[in-house]
Amino acid sequence: MIGGQLISYLNRPETLHLSKSIIPTLFAKCIKTGMQYYNGFLEEFLYNGDVKSDPQHEFMIWDLSKSKVYKATDFEYNEDLYDDLAFEQKFVLISDLIPSVWKKEMVSKLFQTRKTISIMISETRMLENKMFF
């Protein structure tokens, strides 16, 4: 169990509603702390288009360009999400690692948003290169 799987496990209703126990409070603090890292990770991905803070593939978006173990073809291909070859060869969204405190659809939309930003940046650079050469 890694990353979002652990947060989801700690966030299960049967875990959080243990009566007269310190466990729910401890789990809630663990979830809060873990989610701070997830929020920072998501900001890094959205703003910078990078995931340097996840060298061990614990978060839900993996940078395959830095992986010696995985490649894009190892994962399920979804035409709706992955239609830009450069982006899909670099990043993959692992839905099982999305913490249960977030909605999977929301994270998918954020992933798509970053992809759109990456495409726009790439096309702008190509246009700039054509203008100056």
From TrEMBL:
Pfam families: GCP_N_terminal (PF17681)
Domain Gamma tubulin complex component protein N-terminal: 3-120
Domain of life: Eukaryota
GO CC term, one of those recorded: microtubule
InterPro entries: GCP_N (IPR041470)
Keyword terms: Microtubule
Name of the protein in its database record: Gamma tubulin complex component protein N-terminal domain-containing protein
Organism of this sequence: Panagrolaimus davidi
Lineage of the species this protein comes from: Eukaryota, Metazoa, Ecdysozoa, Nematoda, Chromadorea
